[in-house]
Amino acid sequence: MAAAVDTRPVHRDGAALEAISDAVDTVNIFRAMASAPEAFDAQSRFDAEKDKAAFRQYGDACERVKTFYAEQHTKQTMAHNLAARERFYSPSRKRAEMTVWEAIEKLNTLIDDSDPDTELSQIQHLLQSAEAIRRDGKPRWMQLTGLIHDLGKLMLFFDDCCEGQWDVVGDTFPVGCRFDERCIYPDTFRANPDFGHEVYGTKYGIYEPGCGMDKLMMSWGHDEYLYLVLKDQSTLPREALAMIRFHSFYPWHKEGAYREFMAESDDVLLKAVQAFNPYDLYSKSDDVPKVEELKPYYLELIDEFFPQKIIKW
């Protein structure tokens, strides 16, 4: 179905991955309760006093971020994305099986060698997001979404799920149609083989206007991977799955790009992703959570939305 791709083993350097991921998240930040829970899209309150003016300043981004996006924009082709999904669904791929909390603990090992004084662990970031959502009184399903939204980075542990950091983290975008100028560093797409393609290089490409966001093939990464893992293995609502799938799709939820593909029913998904975004980004300056104190609450929350307990990753 897809063109052959280089399947050399991925170097699972947790510290390096988190350095890239944190740098990308840092520049992303700028672009970006009561007994009865608030609506999921109610205005966030936890970040009201935070200074957000120092983030998502791509002009001043470090060379590491610029180099990362140059590679990502060159290699995220239609052929690569077809091949990535073919490998994901392959009957021969042995899928790891573990609980959600075990997955969180496994993800935490990615940064065992990093400096604890300068970087938070994955579990701390996930709990920061979840706790900020909880403090604002948002629904329990949204609290859980905050806890699990980055678990797609587990793909680094599994064979044939990724080829490098460029198809794990970073802003996402659709493939199979023209790369929008509102993507970060749009000029770097010129090195992509699909740039100027007779079909993939056109405005609508393989899609139709109003086809719906579920019809788009998003660039391969931890967002798309986790969405594919969870959509049939949880009772999370459609809005939660959209938060997971599109939380890195800044060209859409922040810059207004690709909205010509939205169906009428997608308005609620856009609101969901926009409501989730502050909790992912601005919570990183919150106090470091006490994992063992919070664990019982979140184990109960996990059981509520993952009745089968063991997930096939």
Task: Describe, in plain words, how this protein is organized in 3D.
The strands form 2 sheets. The protein has a two-stranded antiparallel ribbon. The protein has a two-stranded antiparallel sheet with strand order 2-3. Helix content is 40%, strand content 3%. The chain has one domain (14-33, 60-312). By secondary structure, the chain is mostly helical.
Number of DSSP helices? Answer: 11
What oligomerization state is this entry in?
single chain
Low-confidence stretches: 1-7, 30-36, 111-118
Order of helices and strands: HHHEHHHEEHHHHHE
Q: How are the strands ordered across the major sheet? A: 1-4
Portion of residues within helices: 25-40%
Shape: globular
Tally of distinct domains: 1
Q: Structural class, from helix and strand content?
A: mainly alpha
Number of strands: 4
Kindly report the average pLDDT value: 86
Largest beta-sheet details:
2 strands, antiparallel
Strand content: under 5%
Distance between the termini: 23 Å
The radius of gyration computed from the alpha-carbon positions, rounded to a whole number of angstroms, is 19 Å
GO biological process, one term: inositol catabolic process
Family: Belongs to the myo-inositol oxygenase family.
Cofactor: Fe cation
Binding site for Fe cation: 125, 149-150, 222, 247, 280
Secondary-structure map with pairings?
Layout: H1 14-28, H2 63-75, H3 78-89, E1 97-98, H4 100-108, H5 122-135, H6 140-148, E2 174-175, E3 217-218, H7 222-230, H8 238-246, H9 250-253, H10 267-281, H11 291-305, E4 311-312
Antiparallel strand pairs: 1-4, 2-3
Helix pairs in contact: 5-6, 5-10, 6-8, 6-11, 7-8, 8-10
GO molecular function: inositol oxygenase activity; iron ion binding
Organism: Parathielavia appendiculata
Family: Belongs to the myo-inositol oxygenase family.
